[in-house]
């Protein structure tokens, strides 16, 4: 015989089930905690030959004054009809007695539903009380300030956790409010690029274009985090002055400084420029050569950006009366997909500029001046650049003597100026090309360290060089960053693009570093 008892889930509270056993009976004492009554079952095996068994049930008050007893006999196994009758009838009587002596039972599903509702209400209250996190790991993004604070509904967060993320992509362990969205912490599964694609597709299927996903590295513990924010908070900023007007104004001033830089007589007396504007035409060839290098530099950026789907703003050329121009400031107006795409765009400009500049520099050393005189400079000027000094030593040989003047094609000076502008933009600091390259190769934390080191080094150099002073001020106030977040910042770029980026950094270093080795002394060469 199987004694069927109600499932524990049907009782309104937990109960204790002590079991005592002897050779003639089993006794179950079931004290129900929320009730004042105690119920006991006694299963008595009758020793008579009839084989009948009885279940004695008694209910009593705690003081023992009132006790109710119920006796249920099991039918004889030989009579199936009697067994069925007893089973149906007496069991019903037993159930009726339970209904009379106990409070109405509550179904387990109702209990779970009630518990979930209370939990949801508590979660909503807790969410309302949580302070919204701001700052990293979304540096460089100024989220649009809307009229009302945007908070993701709990239902949306649950869908993100359970349906958008998952064991096969990013297993969420916790989440925190972040600006207008949510920052998820967890464990990344598989390659970051593939996981990002899967999560993005699921996010698109569930919510369309409502939200934007970022898969980043938490600067606090260097672990992957996922950030989901509404796209409405990532709208581009607007400026009071039209971008094209400001860029055009800077461009006109840069043209003037490029012309001025190639007219030595006007450089010594800037005030005389107003009375001698006709002399600016003498600086046109040099200005065109330097502008060509700058133009090729920017063209490289825009061509690669178009190929990778990155939107760039209008370039702002920065004028400089020392070298003609400090290059240009070009904003990235869209969110870059990954570090490899950023590396492609950032390295394309310097690679193009260095290529054209080196070709023109070599031609300047090889081609004699058209007037037979060219530009007369002291040989010590080539000590200012390791790259220019090394090429001059290689091509000019013993002609290059310490303390002796030398006549060179002016193309050397013009191309050198273009190379210097490229090199300055290749400094690994802030949002310069070099800063973006270092970020793409080594990550955000290493990039910030390079920026600090470069600013300190330029600050020390500014004590001896006025160009370094103006450049460190430009970086600190306009270009120190941080770089805006990429959609996926975890995957490292391909090795061939890393090699290009390192080449750009090395070329910039070679242009800026001095040439330390002495040329042949003129007095020694005379012997």
The average pLDDT value, as a whole number, equals: 75
Strand order of the largest sheet: 1-2-3-4-5
Query: What fraction of residues sit in β-strands?
Result: 15-25%
- Kindly provide the radius of gyration, computed on alpha-carbon positions and rounded to a whole number of angstroms: 41 Å
Overall helicity: 40-55%
Contiguous low-pLDDT stretches (5 residues minimum) are 1-136, 142-148
Spatial shape:
elongated
What order do the helices and strands follow?
EEEEEHHHEEHEEHHHEEHEHEEHHHHHEH
N-C termini distance: 125 Å
The total number of structural domains is: 3
Structural class: alpha+beta
How many helices does DSSP assign? 15
Strand segment count: 15
Q: Main sheet?
A: 5 strands, antiparallel
Walk me through this protein's architecture.
InterPro entries: EGY1-like, Peptidase_M50. It comes from Cicer arietinum (Chickpea). It holds the Pfam family Peptidase_M50. With 527 residues, the chain is α+β, with helices and mostly antiparallel strands. The chain has 3 domains: 8-96; 151-235, Gyrase A, domain 2, CATH 3.30.1360; 243-525, no CATH class. The chain has helices spanning 80-101, 108-129, 154-164, 192-207, 243-261, 264-267, 284-308, 339-366, 386-396, 410-425, 433-442, 444-461, 466-479, 495-512, 522-525; strands at 19-21, 25-31, 38-45, 53-60, 67-73, 170-178, 181-188, 211-217, 224-230, 316-320, 324-329, 375-378, 401-402, 405-408, 520-521. Strand 8 (211-217) and strand 9 form a beta hairpin. Helix 8 (339-366) packs antiparallel against helix 10, helix 10 (410-425) crosses helix 14 and helix 12 (444-461) packs antiparallel against helix 13. The N and C termini lie far apart (125 Å). The model is unreliable at 1-136 and 142-148 (pLDDT under 50).
